[in-house]
Design goal:
Two copies of one chain form a homodimer.
Chain A lengths: L1 E3 L7 H13 L8 E3 L2 H6 L3 E3 L5 H8 L15 H13 L4 E6 L1 H16 L5 E6 L15 H22 L1 E7 L6 H4 L14 E3 L7 H15 L1 E7 L3 E9 L5 E7 H8 L19 H13 L6 E5 L3 H4 L6 H20 L4 E7 L7 E6 L1 H4 L21 H10 L11
Parallel strand pairs in A: 1-4, 4-5, 5-12, 6-8, 6-11, 7-8
Antiparallel strand pairs in A: 2-3, 9-10, 12-13
Helix pairs in contact in A: 1-3, 1-12, 4-5, 6-14
Chain lengths: 409, 409
């Protein structure tokens, strides 16, 4: 059984095709069931046999963004996992490959524990996928490199737009808890004068007063300013977040939520009762806030929220990302066939100047639950930018970017 | 003198480099003054000599989006044009090339009339540029093809995202008065099941009740729906718009404005007192409106506003667009050198199945002022989609698009 889960990436189908290819290489496996819409399709027994699928068609699928099998936002609890396991038993499923983020790793872990308790031979592999790049153990996640490439190109173009018409521009970038993708906007910067001039990530407390000072300083120096902010930037207040199991935890309050409260905007909430951040006008609020503080002589101020195109754009996939996404899919099958083990496929970056990676098996429990924030060492002391050391990390993942041509330096 | 004006495009520097190249080919012209930020740089006498500029650098500039000389939103009145003309006279400027939209054509026209009245030999050429594709006379405008390509790819990816996670998705696309760019989203559709399933342009009255019915019908059929709307879609009410010369005209009221009024949102206005549409949450409003009507069993509903990335993204320039943008720049210089004429460079599409164009000189007065809406014949009878005949028009301009791979048709 193979399934895809969670938000889209540009290369999630590379991993699916990697699984299909590797299973095709194994005569001992008779069927490869592809579940429609992940765990939802499993419990509804909506699957299709992918063994021996047309290769030319598979290559087109691999090059197309967003889960070709369909995805799901379902986060199975114990009972849901029990139903998954019963479907596996009923259909004699002996291998389960689940492409997704840390919640999917947890689903894989629970189902695997159930099989073990029932002495049912089931090998379960989680295949990492997320544009957020926030999985533990692995050096980076397939899907991140292409999203980072999109963000870099978008901010690069936006910076040229801002240089052309001047003023202030705020770009809101995906990343509810982790700043990895927003930090990738650094790739757009070619020298001290080009943007993004300021970068704010959720890992550093966002102080709105300091933000105004930061923007004013850049604007005074350059006559313009391009600002990249994560959708999930937080202030130093707390708010409650309800988890799938009903428990409640206190987290830093997102700036967007604080703003919405101050502006008396009704907050839409998801099935777990948590605020849907994607609907809050963070960029526009920050623009309005700055406009008020800069007063009469305020420059032109605009805000964009990049939105879903960051994770689904078919036009600029990172070649490295595509290749690695394919390989993590293949590796999952190879690891499962090689031994009576389960796990998550992880990527290790080779030592040395030239980019290269190897793959290894991580424990499901080490990848499930927790996520990996952007390390503090990448965030500058003023908490308004990213250190150059991060470029060494991200540049090989996003791939070569076109040079920016200017008439004068 | 050469200058760039108005909103960015991905190929506006191709036209600039076309002008520079063609001037370099002419020994009789000693200097080519590039004005910083268009007419604003002219009256401030901020220009730089571009004659004999480094060619390799120029090629990098040509491949970089957004006005390398800097652009401006200034729409000169008679007095402003007088100052431009005085600067020309003072600096012995005999040719003026202005890259921009219909307002720039009008500036060119006024300055040229002044020169004529004073018997000052000045040849003025407008070089067309706009992602809106709304200039008259020419078959299409440089800048449009690349923006159309971006929109097609973005909606193509978004449709795959929507197929993967289902629900309703609304994409707001640039186009205050003209639906050309929104119509280009049609390029993303590969068959009856793929999106965009509904397309709304400003040229057809938007009836919000019918909109809900349209969405419901698609959702009932497919379990999902991707909707492309122009930012400038209008209802059947009127509102006042103030022009640069202070005169007022009545126009159809944008849906976004109607919504903002109903929701008591303060409207930001530009220097002419007109509402800044880009700040209104049209997509979110439509999403909220639909959610309320679909009630308890409403699907997941999301909205994105593509924003400035449509006009500035460096990653997916249309090759045809880049080539034509270069050539309209060269033609402008060639026409000006060939005779004592002024005008605007226009593109004529060749007859026959294979795409090809020729260039010709249009009168400035025919391009200035008025714009060219999307012809009614391209809009379907239900006013919720675009006819297939439009694909013949737009496909060659956007260039080849990657095929969408699906596991099953």
């Amino acid at each position: 059984m193979v399934g895809q889960s969670g938000g889209s990436t540009a290369v999630i189908n590379q991993s699916l095709v990697g699984v299909i290819e590797a299973v095709d290489d194994c005569a001992a496996i008779g069927r490869l069931l592809g579940a429609h819409h992940g765990v939802r399709g499993i419990v509804q027994e909506l699957f299709v046999n992918l063994k021996g699928f047309d290769r030319a068609r598979l290559e087109r699928v691999a090059a197309t963004p967003c889960a070709a099998l369909g995805s799901t936002r379902d986060k199975p609890n114990e009972e849901y996992c029990r139903r998954i396991f019963e479907v596996f038993r009923k259909n004699d499923v002996r291998y389960f490959f689940y492409i997704g983020g840390n919640d999917s790793a947890d689903t894989a872990r629970i189902v695997r524990e159930m099989a073990k308790a029932d002495s049912y031979d089931l090998r379960v592999f989680h295949i990492p996928k997320t544009i957020d790049n926030d999985l533990r153990v692995t050096d980076h996640c397939p899907g991140y490199g292409s999203a980072a490439r999109f963000v870099a190109l978008a901010v690069m173009g936006d910076d040229r737009d801002n240089a052309s018409l001047t003023g202030l521009k705020i770009d809101v970038i995906m990343g509810r808890d982790a700043g990895w993708l927003t930090a990738a906007s650094m790739l757009a910067r070619s020298d001290e004068s080009t943007g993004p001039h300021l970068i704010y990530v959720p890992e550093a407390i966002f102080d709105i007063g300091r933000f105004v000072d930061d923007v004013r300083a850049v604007y005074d120096r350059l006559g313009r300013c391009v600002i990249a902010v994560s959708e999930g930037i937080v202030c130093d207040e707390k708010m409650e977040v309800r988890k799938a199991d009903g428990s409640v935890k206190l987290v830093d309050k997102p700036i967007a939520v604080k703003v919405a409260e101050e502006m008396h905007i009704d907050l839409e909430r998801d099935d777990h009762g948590n605020v849907v951040l994607s609907k809050l006008p963070l960029g526009q609020f920050l623009a309005d806030y700055i406009a008020e503080r800069l007063g009469k002589n305020k420059p032109r101020i605009r805000a964009d929220t990049f939105g879903y195109v960051q994770r689904s754009f078919p036009g600029c996939v990172s070649p490295v990302d595509a290749r690695e996404a394919r390989l993590v899919g293949r590796r999952a099958v190879q690891y499962a066939l090689a031994g009576r083990t389960s796990g998550s496929v992880a990527i290790r970056r080779n030592e040395g100047a030239r980019y290269g990676v190897s793959y290894f098996r991580a424990e499901l429990a080490d990848v499930a639950h927790q996520t990996k924030p952007l390390p503090k060492e990448y965030i500058n002391a003023a908490a308004n930018g990213i250190n150059d050391s991060f470029l060494d990390y991200v540049a090989p993942l996003a791939g070569d970017l076109p040079p920016i041509g200017r008439l004068f330096d």
